[in-house]
Amino acid sequence: MLPIYGRFLGDFTAHLVAVDNEDTIGEVAAKIAVHSIRRRLPAEPAGSYEVSIDGRVIPAEVRVSHLSLRPLHWIDVRWKR
Length: 81
Description:
Helix content is 11%, strand content 33%. The chain has 81 residues and is mainly beta. The chain has a five-stranded mixed beta sheet, covered by helices on one side. Strand 3 and strand 4 form a beta hairpin.
């Protein structure tokens, strides 16, 4: 397990989330979004997530193990445009 900080853009707070090396970025996005969507941010109909790490958008199917994430790495999640 790897602890990361994740923030859903538009929310005022980040969350400490544990991710597994075999998680996909799509799964990581869902782990972060669950703390914000329908709590402090509204849901979007048929919305899907987009993840940005160090300014780069990462495809949803990429696994955490294929990235060079460090403990407490910062990840931004937003609605896919």
